Amino acid sequence: MTAPLKIRYVHAPAKILVMDMETRSIGFHDAGRFGVKGSEPLCIALSWLDSPYEPWCWDLGSVPLETLLRLFKRAYDDATHVMAHNIRRFDLPIINGSLMEHGMPMLGPKLTIDTLKDLKKIAGMSKSQQNLAETFDLEEEKLPMSDAMWRRAGRLNPKALERARQRCRTDVVQNKALYWKLREGEYLHPPKVWRP
Question: What is the Cα gyration radius of the chain?
């Protein structure tokens, strides 16, 4: 008699996509309870959490919005998790709105790591990504942008768009470093599934 076959389950490693998105205002939509006025992606930066390379970044000055959305969705669909600061309330709903507006398939449910909303309860200090990074003395800095530069970027001025791209990239790099610090200190709740 042969021994029963033993099945071993092997869990694939998490494939965590880290993102940042900058937006530009469009239309006259009221912000409502979510605090997000009419907007669409201006540029999107992406990197895998374990990648040592510079994040990819695309913007409306170099590719049409439909291409920007397709590039993001391809990486999103390939990831097991997606991470950003305030991703569930800001980034993903705005991307889904743009996908719908352009008649494209929307994002599906995905495990998310939100370095803002998944923080354990704290009070008395700012929970902005920049403040948290400075709290932990992280070397990675987020590139600042003035209102005048944002206005120019929204109008697709090449110099301003380049600065927006750099800000997007530095945001991703800083968020990756912040995640490891928050995870090391056990300051984050477990990932949550975002459902459109």
Answer: 18
